[in-house]
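[Q] Does anyone have a clean structure-token version of this?
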Amino acid sequence: MKKRTSEKKCAVSRRDFIKASAAVSLAALTSGTKYVFAAGSDKLRVGLIGCGRRGTDAVKNCLDASDGVEIVAMGDVLKDRLDSSLSELKKAGGDRIKVTGDTCFIGFDAYKKVIAGDVDMVILTTPPHFRPAQFKAAVEAGKHVFMEKPLGVDPVGVRSVFTSAELAKKKGLSVVVGAQRRHQPHYLEIMKRIHGGAIGQIVTAQCYWNWDQMNWHFYHRKPEWSDMEWQIRCWPYFTWLSGDHIVEQHLHNIDVINWALQAHPVKALGMGGREVRTSPEYGNIYDHFAVDFEYPNDVHVMSMCRQMERCTGQISERVVGTKGWAYTDSVNGYIEGPNAYKYEGPNLDPYVAEHADLIASIREGKPLNDARQVAESSLTAIMGRMSAYTGRALKWDWVMKDSKLDLSPPKYEFGDLPVRPVAIPGKTRLI
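[A] Here you go.
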């Protein structure tokens, strides 16, 4: 999988990361308490499920977050991806990469074999469609989890995540989702101030992921690839695998809005289309969306996302209150108004921070679990997509409880898999 987009980040050394983490009250990276994990070791043994670009980088982030981590198993549906990832990780991780031929697994059931192995924690970085089933299996097996966002592509899948998140809570498991803004110091500080009343009562907000890139993770199809293999290799372009870019990518900004409002929307009315990526090799997703999300107390939020080259880029959030407004993006956070404030502290690598927080919670026996919050944000984005695809206004309660939309393929095997038609508002059926 592709690295998590080209947002600007501040490069901070691991030593500086650890020192600055304490200064901004992020979770401690180590604990004085000795915990014994799998195989009677104090090393946290980790398995990777999904060995593309994102998975490979997530392992590097995990290794950077703590010295007490070993990677002991890997699984993917594609052998070449696993082999490439393992080769790269051996160079980066040295003797902390303990993976052997016996702990490498290929196929649609590879995740089950990794989870069944001698691991304490799993990293789930397969395409989003597979997240609910893999999360369920990991929690039922008692494994701690780092998993990428979004947490599903349809209401049926996300409802499964809600159930698994609750089970993880009952079992005392730590679960951290790759909504990395929740682990960035400037976002944490701005949210603390918003929730403390710095901008007054929230009256409206806007969020954007208008990207000036179109060919993200695009590969020309090779003759030897079956339909299933082609779609998995080019997963962002197929709704059943990615949820479309409003779900896979814009989820970050939508999650910030839900976080700020401490709520999910009650209604959505969206629109979108396929203006630039119109040829069949781009699968069946849209290239632009705009959604009006209505939250409790008649708070309306404008959500906008686009993937088009040579267009103005904007990736940010703005929350407006009765006493001012707050702005955030991947490196900035400030408040305008009577309680004006600008964050000027360290801007740590959030991809390392999320793993540091997760590992600290496991070692300290103080479970973190943000799966439900990000599941709500995932369903928010899915609701926006469903409204845009069908042209219908939707209510949260119907999507959450009654929608039967399940984008799963008929079977999981390499072979024929016709591409579903591109959605047409007014014609595509609401399910």
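[Q] Thanks! Anything notable?
[A] The domain at 185-347+376-401 is CATH 3.30.360.10 (Dihydrodipicolinate Reductase; domain 2).
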